[in-house]
Amino acid sequence: xxxxxxxxxxxxxxxxxxxxxxxxxxxxxxxxxxxxxxxxxxxxxxxxxxxxxxxxxxxxxxxxxxxxxxxxxxxxxxxxxxxxxxxxxxxxxxxxxxxxxxxxxxxxxxxxxxxxxxxxxxxxxxxxxxxxxxxxxxxxxxxxxxxxxxxxxxxxxxxxxxxxxxxxxxxxxxxxxxxxxxxxxxxxxxxxxxxxxxxxxxxxxxxxxxxxxxxxxxxxxxxxxxxxxxxxxxxxxxxxxxxxxxxxxxxxxxxxxxxxxxxxxxxxxxxxxxxxxxxxxxxxxxxxxxxxx
Length: 293
Description:
Elements: H1 2-20, H2 40-46, H3 48-57, E1 76-85, E2 91-96, E3 100-103, E4 109-114, E5 118-121, E6 129-130, E7 133-144, E8 151-161, E9 174-185, E10 188-196, E11 198-199, H4 203-206, E12 210-218, E13 224-234, E14 244-260, E15 263-274, E16 283-292
Antiparallel strand pairs: 1-2, 1-3, 1-16, 2-5, 3-4, 4-7, 5-6, 7-8, 8-9, 9-10, 9-11, 10-12, 12-13, 13-14, 14-15, 15-16
């Protein structure tokens, strides 16, 4: 019942935003001027898309990578599908990948409301269930679009709440502070993040892994973005103390393809393979579908 209510609230919020002002295609003509009325609340929602367009016009117009969280501010609904091959012949399928609704509520900020992924395993039995709830707040420090310098620097504050079912939860809240940055040169860009995962009262078990990701992309014919990503994790403590883990992800993202007024679609797919010993999983196939608006 709680999940149904949450879905209804999400649809209602999207409907309110859609009705707030006429939709406009992103990244085309200059954003219209902010409109004003006697009610600050009405003004806030009426000018939502105008504010979003002005905010995004000040940053590079790259595409979001498959794995690395982009430093850009995005507004979209996202669904990821992940198929992992794990040690000892085990598999894990993640429906949703913990992605969800991404909104730009104010200038220079973004909020990501993750939808807990449904995880299905082939072993052990009866362990399928929802993963933990995750939330992410972005604050853009510096940015310049392609005409002004083609770079961006953003701070992240990530939170994971132990709401998942047995065998699909870390059992502890986790805080992940991160700095993200990117730089473009013509059709080529690099987007990267560096952060740490800090669990609540579980350092001895989960540790405080250092997380680093870098995505290298090249734009072809406006909508094709082939990419290679390097995803690195190091555990300085905890049960995996001293272990380094590196994944290489190759993929292709296609987008943004206009659908209707502001609404578009972006689709990406890739394959991830472990490049070091003792990884959490050996390889994974990734499918990502986004609906930017």
